[in-house]
Amino acid sequence: MLKHIDEYRDKTLVETLVRTIAATVTRRWTIMEICGGQTHTIMRYSLQELLPDEISLIHGPGCPVCVTPVDLIDSAVELGSRPNVILVSFGDMLRVPGSHDDLLRVKAQGGDIRMVYTPLDALDIAEKNPEKEVVFFGVGFETTAPAVALTIKQAESRALDNFSVLVSHVLVPPAIQALLDDRQNRIDGFLAAGHVCTIMGIHEYIPLAERYEIPIVVTGFEPVDILLGIRKCIEMLEQNRPGVENAYPRSVRPEGNMAARELLHEVFVRVDRRWRGIGAIPGSGLGLADAYMKFDATSRFDLQAAETEEPEVCMAGEILTGRKKPSDCPLFGTLCKPENPLGALMVSTEGACSAYYRYSGSSMAEQ
Questions:
Q1: Same domain, 75 and 34
Q2: Which helix (H) or strand (E) holds 213?
Q3: Has residue 361 got a pLDDT over 60?
Q4: pTM of this prediction?
Q5: What SS3 state is found at 325?
Q6: Which strands make up the sheet holding 29-33, listed edge to edge?
Q7: Which in 131, 227, 255, 341 has the greatest CB count within 10 A?
Q8: How many whole angstroms separate alpha carbon 98 and alpha carbon 68?
């Protein structure tokens, strides 16, 4: 079971955690990590192989690029095709397929599509191109939303009337609730994303843990962080002790980042949001508050995108909800590869399919 142990920087601690988990578990448990970054750590360091057979790790909708619905990609493609628009986005979004096209193809066909590393860069582009409409494609969980909120406030203070945001921010707790309401749910406990809780704190997870009588453990991203989170989750399950525990105290305070939360509360309101492969989840998104609606690209350009489902050949919905793993898809590693992705999960650096392909994909596909 410990054949990968020499790959770890904290070898002794990893070995201790693995042995403690093995000594604690007495029955089968299924734990879902809710963050794509954690999924990549699990795959990169083969953490599942270190664990006892009784513990199964499944992967949730923890990649914001992956859950951005097809209709919003289509809206971005339509905007990016307009001659008077500069569409600005993070790099992963350029290759996510819409119903007919992706932003990279639009760029190749002459669209002005630009990649940035921070939304604030979009403001500089707007200032330098006053004759153009600059649209930032705002994608992410609670982690990146404060930076977009700050960008919008900066746009107002700098009187940048040619700047707007195509908002696609989503929230983690409503997604967890939707997973637990699913009759096909087989989740016994959750590892919550530490970076999200750094912003939002843990208060929104407490009612979920109480209502559904499950453990939710806030966890970091290093192998030791994840194993510690698994250990705590298994202890809570074995003791029949639902609740929320913070296994990432070096970064997460129970109240989160109050300044960031206040900024989100000022600029955004909660809205219903569609998730790729999953469908509409009530109250799971952020939309602009009335005071900032002039920066809303959907309203500014009167976008009327139709609700478009994921292509049937892609198993995104089943993978994002933990019912299937990427290796269960018959197209994984054959017709669907990073250089020719059929779905968003193979594109994003946080996508589960990307993680499986990068760290064990070629051998899986050949089996």
A1: no
A2: none
A3: no
A4: 0.91
A5: coil
A6: 55-59, 29-33, 189-193, 215-219, 243-246
A7: 227
A8: 10
133 located within any domain:
yes
326 vs 361: CA distance, rounded Å: 9
Cα distance between residue 51 and residue 303, in whole Å: 48
Query: What is the rounded distance in angstroms from the CA atom of residue 329 to the CA atom of residue 333?
Result: 9
What is the number of other CB atoms lying within 10 angstroms of the CB of residue 102? 22
280 φ, ψ (degrees, to nearest 5): -75, 135
Please check whether residue 31 is in contact with residue 72, taking contact to mean a CB–CB distance below 8 angstroms. no
Which stretches of 143-271 are DSSP H helices? 145-157, 172-181, 194-200, 205-212, 223-238, 258-267
* Token pair 């994608």: residue: 139
Rounded to whole angstroms, how far apart are CA atoms 19 and 100? 50
What is the residue type of 346?
A: M
And the tokens for 141? 């969980």
Are 191 and 81 contained in the same domain? no
Residue 292 three-state SS? helix
What residues are paired with 287 via a beta bridge? 269
The pLDDT value given to residue 308: 67
Element (H, E) at 123: helix 120-128
Strand partners, 244: 216
| Structure-block tokens of residue 359 | 């760290």
pLDDT digits 0-9 by tens, 310-350: 667 788 889 999 999 999 999 999 989 988 888 889 988 88
Per the structure, the complete domain to which residue 190 belongs is given by 5-63+173-246
The single-letter code of the amino acid at 226 is I
